[in-house]
Amino acid sequence: MLRMVGLWTPENAYWKTAYRYYSNFCAIVWVLFFLCTQAYFFINVSSVADVADALYFFLNELMLLPKIYYYRKNATLMKKVVAKLESENFLPKNMDEEKYCKELQKCFKESIFVQLITTCFICCMTELQMAVEIKKSIFLFLTNSLPYFFVLAYQIYLLCKAGNELTYASKSLMYDAFRSNFMTFDKRTSNVLLLFMERVKRDIKIDAQLIFTITLSIQNFLSIMRASYSYFAVLQSLG
């Protein structure tokens, strides 16, 4: 599927140049489609609800553009990382293999950042759309905007939950080491344990970074949802 839309370069060197032109063509087609649809939605804007609908589609399409850009930018690195992670011999036990974990975060930190920021505003527009639809039709509200809102929120919840679980697990390593029977360790093992405890003082986090850094955590997930509701309250007061 990714190869069909110009996002996965074939390994065969013979086709790489031709595929690069095809990939650029697909990107141009998508940008033109984006501009045409936005022009259509913004032509007949006469109320706050119309603005919400137009911004709703605008942000959904805008979210894809930087994702495609960063995906194409990091495609080569992404292939190497995926090939390494899928290897049966992959065990993150040395610095060389830990480097691949850092490169994996490097591949996605910009696109996840865009995902989180745009989701905040899309949730706001969806909430405004929900407020309009619930007055018109309960059925439309239950089958259209409400399921979309929950799916959108659940999407970023999964990202933040994964980052939160990793940070929590890294913090628990210190307590696990302290609960060991360290009083019976010999001097060499005790020194290794001390080095280990010093190392795990630094929390392991997954960061989304572009303009600034957002750590993936449940706390930041709640902050995003609170911010979207705050923007919704402001827009609703204008209507």
From TrEMBL:
Residues annotated as signal peptide: none
Membrane topology recorded in Swiss-Prot or TrEMBL: Multi-pass membrane protein
Gene Ontology terms for molecular function: odorant binding; olfactory receptor activity
GO cellular component: plasma membrane
Subcellular localization(s) per the UniProt record: Cell membrane
Principal localisation: membrane
BP-aspect Gene Ontology terms: signal transduction
Organism: Culicoides sonorensis
Taxonomic superkingdom: Eukaryota
Keywords associated with the record: Cell membrane, Membrane, Olfaction, Receptor, Sensory transduction, Transducer, Transmembrane, Transmembrane helix
Cell membrane is among the record's keywords: yes
Residue spans crossing the bilayer: 21-42, 54-71, 138-160
Entry protein name: CSON005363 protein
